[in-house]
Amino acid sequence: MKKMFLNGKERNIYKVNLHTHTTTSDGLHEPHELCFLYHQAGYDALALTDHRKTNDVLAVQAKVKERYGVEMPLISGIELHPAGPLGKTWHILALGVAVDFPGNYNSGFEAAQAVRDVNGLVFAAHPYWCGITSKEIMDELGEINGTEVYNASCRYIGKEYNMNTWDELLDAGCRPGLALAVDDCHSPSTFGMGWTMIAADELTPQALLEALRKGDFYSTEGPEFKRIEVKDGHFIAEFSPATSAIVVSNQAFGHCESVPRWPLPGNERGVVTSFDIDLSDIPKGNYVRCQIKNAEGKMAWSMPYFL
Fold first, then answer.
1. Is 296 exposed, middle or buried (0-12, 13-18, 19+ CB in 10 A)?
2. Looking at 152-243, which runs of residues are DSSP E strands?
3. Residues 69, 41: contact at Cβ < 8 Å?
4. How far apart are CA 225 and CA 239, in angstroms?
5. Is the pTM of this model over 0.90?
6. pLDDT by residue (tens digit) across 240-262?
7. What is the DSSP letter of 267?
8. Distance between CA atoms of 28 and 24, rounded to whole angstroms?
């Protein structure tokens, strides 16, 4: 079991994909087959989030155990598609809903409110790909948990990253302002290309959802955080080898820890693996978050802290 040091405490951390599709909607694999594939790939848990339809996750778990002899905790979810602004369609990722949760709504706000009413979590899915702006998210969805910062299924048209939308939401005061990395798998072309590492008290759907709600996780395409905390006015992080590590804040505030273009003696690999950044020049009330990038160009993101 992997562990990391998060907010002053060593925690168990679980690899989870929170956006995927099966034959219940337009995915290639049946739910139990897809669950086993994720289990084989080293995932600890999975959310089933088919378009406009939920899955009976307990029945799927039972079938996975019967067919393959493995346990795979499953989060019940759904992707909702009410009509959006200017003729666009909302893609709303809902997590922690019941297996009989309705799949059709007249507006984005109605859909998001229905999820909130059952204490579910609401995320704007791949807003860049949808053509959905941060203002439209704020104006039309109400209070949501956050957005997707990375969606592998959008990479083939160059719209997989949503950092700009995320930071606009944070700049505007949206809280808690969380962000997920997902593969949005429909087929093998994006399988396992983005995931969330959740620091939960135990490996159950309820504990994973509660950790998500609190922001006790990081999102990644591959790089790993080993330590994340803001303590005594410093942002402290340790991570797998990276060519850059950036602390992002409101507007023009932030810090960058980058390696030189050519490796120097004592740093032959040309990487950084930690930083301890003084935040005293960043105004109180700002947020700070960290993003790292490795030599392959893959990224990972901490969740925001509010000073």
1. exposed
2. 178-182, 195-198, 217-220, 225-231, 234-242
3. no
4. 4
5. yes
6. 999 999 999 999 999 988 766 55
7. B
8. 9
